[in-house]
Specification:
By secondary structure, the protein is α/β, with parallel strands linked by helices. It is built from 13 helices and 12 strands. The strands form 2 sheets. The protein has an 8-stranded mixed beta sheet, sandwiched between helices.
């Protein structure tokens, strides 16, 4: 059953130079208990898609069109009629039914408040727990995410924790009210490899225990291979390919997806073949391409790619792609 449905979402940022079209007509869904990976370069629109959903856009960000259906309820800003009603609704949903794990815990945690305060406040705001009950729940969460000696450490400040332990605290805060959806925005970026593996394993274990759906925003295909059931590839604010992890790794259809895979080392490949970075730069979203967003970096681009956004080709199951090379007429010329 779909927990989250996003339909034709378009988000822009108003600047002195015009509108930055960060998210362009994106549609997808997330099922209960599923882990969905969203992959793409910086500026591809993956984080802004999530901030649009959870209501954390910058002041100059606006959802211009589309619908966001969460747990059977329309939570699109345009649905509420006023900004105040929308913000009140999102205050109730955020931290309660929907939570976010940010990539840098020090920008999320308040440096002048004890961990105890930062864990207890969400519980008391969203539940009818007493302070004593909330503290017990906070200690339980710290044990759950692997914080040693929680009775002692709950009284400490964020700077007294290592980077990996701070990220565990952020995960504990995200879990305070048993959310149905957890959005993880590059949660292992600032951590070393060993701690990365521990944090990913923790997120996966918690997902299995709570049956929460997880959206994992990343540019690391290794994270996708380890954790995700289904994968979305975003580029230039557009969704260009989606499929199961096996579809994406073993049968990629979009030239951008193939380019991403060529950029990563394969430990099973004994050849001396060098990695192949994708030449060129991402598109300018103040003035995005009329057709396929990848057209200026694609070695196989045709005339039609410049003029028209590719149609969606369905390969069966959950595998879909928007690339003119998959069109039946592609072999006959452009």
């Amino acid at each position: 059953m779909a927990l989250l449905e996003v339909k034709n979402l378009s988000t822009v940022f108003k600047t002195d130079h015009g509108k930055v079209q960060a998210v362009r007509d994106v549609s997808f869904h997330v099922d209960e208990g599923e882990v969905l990976g969203i992959v793409g370069e910086s500026g591809s629109g993956k984080s802004q898609t999530m901030y649009s959903i959870i209501g954390l856009l910058a002041d100059n960000g606006v959802i211009e069109s589309g619908e966001i259906i969460f747990d059977g309820e329309n939570i699109s800003p345009n649905h509420f009629g006023s900004k105040k009603k929308y913000e009140q609704k999102m205050l109730d949903i955020r931290g309660n039914k929907m939570a976010m794990i940010f990539q840098d815990p020090m920008t999320f945690l308040n440096p002048v408040l004890r961990i105890e305060t930062q864990l207890i406040e969400p519980l008391m705001n969203h539940t009818k727990m007493t302070k004593k009950e909330a503290r017990e729940r906070a200690l339980e969460l710290m044990r759950l995410v692997g914080i040693p000696s929680p009775e002692k450490r709950i009284k400490q400040y964020p700077f007294e924790f290592s980077g990996g332990m701070r990220q565990r605290i952020v995960i504990a805060i995200a879990l305070t009210c048993n959310p149905k959806l957890i959005i993880a925005d590059e949660p292992t970026t600032a951590l070393d490899v060993t701690i990365q593996a521990q944090v990913l394993e923790l997120i996966d274990d918690l997902r299995r225990e709570t049956n929460a759906a997880v959206i994992m925003i990343t540019h690391d295909l290794g994270v996708v291979a380890k954790l995700c059931d289904r994968v979305m590839i975003m580029y230039g604010g557009k969704l260009v390919e989606e499929g199961s992890d096996k579809d994406i790794f073993y049968n990629p259809k979009h030239e951008y997806t193939k380019g991403l895979l060529n950029c990563i080392a394969n430990p099973e490949d004994d050849s001396d073949k060098p990695l192949e970075p994708i030449a060129g730069s991402p598109p300018d979203l103040l003035n995005p391409p009329k057709g396929c967003p990848f057209v200026d970096r694609c070695e196989s681009a045709m005339k039609v790619c410049k003029e028209y956004m590719p149609e969606t080709t369905d390969f069966g199951g959950v595998h879909k792609c928007r690339c003119w090379l998959n069109h039946p007429m592609a072999k006959k010329g452009d």
